[in-house]
Specification:
Elements (H helix, E strand, L loop, with lengths): L14 E4 L6 H8 L4 E4 L3 H9 L3 H8 L5 E5 L7 H10 L5 E6 L3 H7 L8 E4 L5 H4 L5 H7 L3 H4 L4 H18 L7 H12 L4 E2 L2 H8 L3 H13 L3 E4 L15 E4 L2 H7 L8 H23 L4 E7 L5 E8 L2 E7 L11 H9 L4 E6 L5 E3 L2 E5 H7 L11
Parallel strand pairs: 1-4, 1-5, 2-3, 3-4, 11-12, 12-14
Antiparallel strand pairs: 6-8, 7-8, 9-10, 10-11, 13-14
Length: about 375
């Protein structure tokens, strides 16, 4: 697995560390807590042992009373362990519990609630460009994405091709999440056409030939498995009539590429544009989670089809960003940001493009995507003081 220092900062109290497979949760916990008592529930023998008697966790901890950290990997495999952990937390033994998971489905259906709010929820995202430093290459990121297990593989393309199969085999099929795995596979492909677009479930249902209710259930599974996210519309102090539907993104642009079919009838520019927007989206999402304070990611679109790709709102300010897959900035590219400025003059506005020139036009900072992503670090927006 590709290794690099991560921006993620651990809470001082108990916490859940969630994130898709391959984002480096296990590696990070091993580096952060090398002396921790560790249970890996992906190990079949460990899973069988504790599934038979979850209270064995207490026995294990009684044998190491001086342990300060307990890491339970892939806790969604055995949510019953959380009941025992909850009791141990109540006993205030001076131990910190860290629970990792690559699926929130079972946890959201009862497990997390068993801890009574005593454990925070955090997310480990794919790499950010600034975490990789000189190893970050925009063109490569647009093709392969930023998932550590992919970037560290001898054949990254092969890992990407097998990524869906891993989830279909070990999560979707093994847990009986869907009755028809082939229908879910078609759904994944159909959703790739919605990546970086406003979500229309009726269109997706027609594309993968299932009813809308099934599609809604499939989408819930996709999000529970942490493989996708939705970006809602920014409506705070809205002065115009806005659309209501969210935009959809796979959690990583490489995973989008793995699901998106390409052929003679598919426009490379369209796919590249969606990949670029998705790459910026996953960086902004990670920035919101890793930065101090409360930050949220939105987009803005009026019913008249005036749009801004991303709005970041929180303690650190109000930022509006438009992403263009072009080498130069055209006047019409600034239209959405100018309209947004009329409604939100306090906002700081950016146009992210594929060119090499950095310019300031009508109060909008136009930055090369490579420069923007490399400079994006938690608690700091790369505005150069503008």
């Amino acid at each position: 697995m590709e290794t690099s220092a991560r921006f993620f900062s651990a809470p001082q109290d108990h916490f859940f560390l969630l994130g898709p497979r391959g984002t480096g949760k296990t590696y990070w916990t091993r580096q952060q807590y090398p002396a921790a008592l560790r249970l890996d529930l992906l190990d079949p023998e460990t899973l069988r042992t504790f599934a038979a008697r979850p209270e064995r966790l207490r026995e294990r901890l009684d044998a190491v009373p001086h342990a300060r950290h307990v890491v339970i990997d892939e806790v969604q495999k055995l949510p019953e362990l959380l009941e025992v952990a909850h009791l141990l937390i109540e006993e205030k033994r001076g131990m910190q519990f860290i629970f990792t998971g690559s699926s929130a489905r079972k946890l959201r259906r009862g497990g997390v609630n068993l801890l009574g709010g005593r454990a925070a929820q955090r997310t480990l995202h794919p790499f950010m460009a600034a975490e990789l430093g000189p190893r970050f290459h925009l063109e490569s990121a647009l093709q392969l994405g930023m998932v550590p297990v992919v970037l560290g593989a001898a054949d990254p393309s092969e890992i990407l091709r097998g990524y869906n199969g891993l989830y279909l085999r070990e999560e979707v099929q093994a847990e009986g999440m869907v009755r028809n795995v082939s229908s879910f596979s078609r759904f994944l492909e159909a959703m790739s056409f919605s990546h970086a677009g406003v979500l229309n479930l009726a269109n997706v249902a027609r594309e993968c030939q299932v009813n809308r209710k099934s599609v809604e259930g499939y989408l819930e599974i996709l999000e529970d498995l942490l493989l996708s996210f939705r970006v809602p519309v920014f409506t705070r102090r809205a002065k115009r009539s806005l659309v209501a539907h969210p935009k959809f993104y796979f959690f990583d642009t490489g995973i989008f590429r793995a699901n998106r079919p390409s052929g003679p009838l598919d426009s490379p520019a369209e796919i590249d544009g969606a990949a670029l927007e998705g790459l910026v989206a996953q960086h902004l999402r990670a920035w919101c989670d890793y930065s101090a304070g409360d930050h949220r990611l939105y987009y803005w679109q009026t019913r008249a089809k005036v749009e801004v790709d991303f709005v970041v709102y929180g303690n650190g300010g109000l930022y509006a960003l438009e992403v263009k897959n072009s080498n130069r900035v055209r006047p019409e590219d600034l239209r959405g940001l100018k309209n947004f400025a009329q409604d939100y003059p306090e906002s700081r506005r950016f146009l992210i493009h594929r060119g090499t020139e950095r310019t300031l036009q009508d109060g909008i900072l136009c930055l090369p995507c490579d420069e923007f992503l490399r400079a994006l670090v938690p608690d700091h927006f790369p505005d150069g003081g503008v």
